[in-house]
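Before the break, one more example. Copy the sequence into your notebook; we will annotate it together after we see the structure.
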Amino acid sequence: MKKRLIFATFVSLLGLALSPAVMAQANSCDIERDVKSKALDEPTWNRLNRIYEYVGNEEYEAARNDLLALQKRSRGNNYLDAIIYQALAQVQWALEDFDSALTSFERAVELDALPNDTHFSLMYQIAQLYYMKERYRDALDRLEIWFCKAPPERIKPDAYVLKASINAQIKEWNEVISAINTAIGMTDEPQENWFSLKLAAYYELEDYPAAAATLEEIITHWPNKKQYWSQLSNIWFKLERDDKALAVFALAHRNNLLNTQGDYLYLSNLYSFRDVPFKAAETLQEGIEKGLVEPTEKHWTVVADSWYAAEELEEALHAFEQAGKVADDGDIDLRRGYILVDLERWEAARDALTTALQKGGLNERKTGEAHLMLGMSEFNLGNWEGAENAWVQAGRIEQSKKAAQQWRNHLREERARKGP
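Here is what the structure looks like once it is written out:
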């Protein structure tokens, strides 16, 4: 890219040096110039041609040295000096000596000796260098002159991207949007970073509907980039359009873009928020089974609660069992016990409740309930001695004392009815 830039510059310089004298006068932008180009003598032209060859071979140091030597022999010829400064600036740019390049470009303009086409074309490069030097207002001034004077066919999308970038630095967000929209409209292949700049401007203006529209446009170009789906979903949620937030991220899931714990937790939460517990459970369990979501007690419990809310009791029991395996106390196993008692699966209920009591960590009320249900399980399994022991334990806790006594009375009646 650098070599093509320098080639083009030197070709234009040599053409300028050999052109016949012409009158060049600016006729717009309130800038008028009356400048004649001049033919150079043959030795000077040959010297410039040799410098061109150096540049063609990327021998920039040699080109710079020859230009400096030629400058010493110019004898106050402003036209030649301007050509030399312009060429020198291009070589300095190629050598990444940007401070010197800026100085040389400015000097070429100050001499006011080049024809309009060349004189005003330097404004674009000066604007770029001012931008690099964080002289943003100066950069805009030069760029506006260039826009005004450049032939329409020479104005490419990159020029408007440069303008938008400068506007962004001085927080002129509406100007950013205007410039970047112009750039996007000039090509069938807009670049991703152009849209990023436009999106940033809408965020700064807190114009979230426009940001959402921009993200939708970005997704049409780059549908496999998850961050845009995520941003769009978050914007819709921020705008209290949780239906759209869910629709967007569910589509990202169907497109196999979710690849982090945060992704699965977010989508599961959206389903829960929209009261779709089946999908909430299914999504989070998928993340756990894929190894993307940590199989913690908390995560398995969320899965279990969602399955339970969806009335998928077998799935809920499985999830509670997984949560219980990593739990430090017996609370999860107690919850599993509640479901198993409701299902009258007495043997499994006895195992779950026994585990809950062995792990401990339950408050008095829950401990009493665990003993009560354990007694019920033992009773229905025909283990009356085990039932009696469980209810005796429940009777020692104030919150379950009355119920425990009722169950013990029932047990005595049952024993009396069936006899010894």
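Confidence is low (pLDDT under 50) at residues 1-28. Residues 348-420 form one domain. Try to locate both features in your own notes.
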